[in-house]
Write a structure and sequence with these properties.
The complex is a heterodimer. In chain A, the strands form 13 sheets. In chain A, strands 7-36-35-34 form a four-stranded antiparallel beta sheet, with no helix packed on it. A four-stranded antiparallel beta sheet of chain A has the order 10-11-12-13, with no helix packed on it. Chain A has one helix and 41 strands. Chain A is globular. Helix content of chain A is about 0%, strand content about 45%. The longest helix of chain A is centred in the middle third of the chain and has 7 residues, at about 305-310. Chain B has a domain at about 20-55. Helix content of chain B is about 0%, strand content about 40%. Chain B has strands at about 20-25, 30, 35-40, 50-60. The model of chain B has no long low-confidence stretch (mean pLDDT about 80). The chains are: A mainly beta, B mainly beta. At the A-B interface, strand 1, strand 6, strand 37, strand 38 and strand 39 of A face strand 1, strand 2, strand 3 and strand 4 of B.
Chain lengths: ~475, ~70
């Protein structure tokens, strides 16, 4: 004989976790069940009460970037600002696409080549230093470039500049690495002069040469330069000091082995922390005390199987990551194992402790983000952008819920199986009540699956009536 | 019913109408229950905050192996 009806209020207390198993056996406490994880959270963001919401769609910036009438792969995007001396800033979007570096001034939507004849398909790096946009790539033939925002074309960075792949400014010097012939050498330029790499205050530091790895990333962080090596044995090193010689000379402090970054473009800062991709997963390097020591944390623990088994590790070192601060998200774009196109974003909401994961494009397509960047858009808002292999530049997370103004995608959430405290007792489902913020006079779909039965589906009108439908 | 609007990131306004609770019927016995919800239509949004389920207990499952 059936008991009286009991109520369970389900709230959302976790993000995507592929590695916690298919079920959650928690019993409601005070008629409330806090769901600690989802088995699927695709194309969603989280509200601060944990509610999943369909992520915004995309709109296209400017025209398609073409060469010989065909769209070319957008390999990198950058927001280049100049302060000048007249109190008026200037802004240029920079793109490395196909064989060219292009600029788009003042959000004009039009692009002009400032460098042609480059190798295509390489991984670029951008930096602003001494009123110049500096560009380098993983090409072993192209040399680093500089652009002052005025000249019709870029110039070679300097005759003494090594052919590096990535760089970071630190203590009025430009540090660089990724030279194919000397893969463990860290270079630094003369003080406030990135065109000079011999003499003056310039120099180099060898970081464990011939240890089976190369320098894969560098970043200035908390008065030190953090140097990552990989992709095999993996290590992290700290460069202390302020100059090539003297009482505060540069010194290398080995920090940890067994973890390191895959590349430069997946390495970035969130809050007071550095986050980076390794062959094992996604990590953070949190400073435990001011300039004292660091502790490495494994952000990707709940989705480790996804990271290990569903991504294409042959090209995982081409990933890009950004700190999308307006949403509190760390976002990386990766290729799924079935191909080389970067078609899934792993999204970490660091507003929560611990952070909550979601995916974009895992179960149904979103935007294939070949590269990611945060660019200031209209009204000086920092927006999320992606370049595609087809020559398009998308602004992501826009108000419309469609890709480029028309293509559908699916916000999709699946819970683990719930037994409400026991699987031995059979329950009889009677009714449910979804509490939501209606977004339009249209439906969303709700399914429930009882044991091994087929899912039962119902379409619920967001502006629904007040009686059981 | 009021006209619905999508969020406007430009205007910094939230779209949607009045926060509301939508009832629906469920049927069938279960020991374990999995839930899924999704929105797959172009330019249609979804923001679900919590769910209340009403169920009754029918006792220990007697369909036990012999």
């Amino acid at each position: 004989m059936a008991d009286k009806l009991s109520k369970v209020l389900i709230t959302f207390a976790g993000g995507l976790a592929t590695d916690f198993g298919p079920s959650f056996t928690g019993a409601p406490q005070g008629q409330a069940l806090q769901l600690p994880f989802f088995l699927r959270a695709d194309n969603v963001l989280y509200e601060l009460d944990g509610a999943p919401r369909k992520v915004g769609g995309s709109s296209i910036y400017g025209t398609r970037l073409d060469e010989s009438g065909a769209g070319v792969s957008v390999q990198g995007l950058y927001d280049f600002w100049l302060q000048g001396t007249g109190g008026t800033e200037t802004q240029n979007y920079i793109a490395y696409a196909g064989t060219q570096i292009l600029n788009s001034t003042g959000l004009s939507g039009t692009w002009a080549a400032i460098k042609t004849g480059l190798e295509s398909g390489k991984e670029p790096c951008f930096e602003t230093f001494t009123a110049r946009m500096i560009w380098a790539s993983t090409s072993t033939t192209d040399v680093p470039q500089r652009w002052d925002g005025v000249a019709a074309t870029t110039s070679n960075l300097g005759a003494s500049a090594p052919r590096f792949s990535f760089m970071a400014k630190h203590k009025n010097l430009l540090f660089a690495a990724g030279v194919a012939t000397l893969p463990s050498r860290l270079y630094f330029s003369d003080t406030l002069d990135p065109t000079v790499w011999t003499g003056g205050g310039s120099g180099s530091i060898d970081i464990d040469p011939d240890d089976g790895d190369r320098i894969t990333g560098i970043v200035s962080h908390k008065n030190e330069l953090i140097v990552f090596k990989g992709p095999n044995r993996l290590s992290v090193h700290r460069i202390t000091g302020s100059s090539a010689s003297g009482s505060d000379a540069f010194a290398r402090v080995p920090f940890v082995t067994g973890v390191g970054s895959l590349n430069q473009n997946g390495l970035f800062r969130i809050n007071d922390d550095l986050v980076f991709p390794s062959p094992r997963g996604l990590h953070s390097l949190a400073a435990t005390a001011a300039f004292g020591d660091y502790v490495e944390a494994f952000l990707a623990r709940p989705i480790l199987t996804l990271y290990q088994d569903q991504l294409n590790h042959n090209v995982i070192n081409t990933c890009w990551g950004v700190n999308y601060q307006p949403r509190g998200l760390a976002i990386w774009t990766f290729p799924l194992a079935s191909g080389t196109a970067k078609n899934v974003c792993l999204v970490y909401d660091y507003r929560f402790q611990p952070g909550r994961w979601a995916t974009w494009g895992l179960n149904t397509s979103y935007v294939n983000a070949n590269c990611l960047a945060i660019l200031q858009s209209t009204q000086r808002r920092h927006r999320l952008f992606a370049g595609t292999t087809g020559g398009y530049i998308h602004q992501l997370d826009v108000s419309n819920r469609s890709i480029a103004g028309g293509t559908a995608y699916s916000g999709d959430v699946i819970t683990p199986f719930l037994n409400f405290g026991t699987s031995a007792i059979k329950k009889n489902a009677h009714a449910g009540f979804w509490s939501l913020l209606p977004k339009g006079a249209y439906n969303f779909n709700f399914e429930y699956t009882r044991d091994n039965n087929a899912a039962q589906s119902t379409a619920l009108a967001q502006g629904g009536g007040n009686t059981l439908g | 019913m009021a006209t619905f609007l999508l969020d406007s990131a430009t205007a910094g306004t939230l779209g949607g109408g009045q926060y509301r609770t939508i009832p629906f019927r469920m049927t069938g016995e279960f020991r374990d229950l999995q839930l899924r919800w999704y929105q797959s239509v172009a330019n249609q949004d979804m923001e679900t905050h919590y769910l209340e389920l009403f169920m009754s207990s029918t006792g220990v499952d007697e369909a036990l192996p012999a």
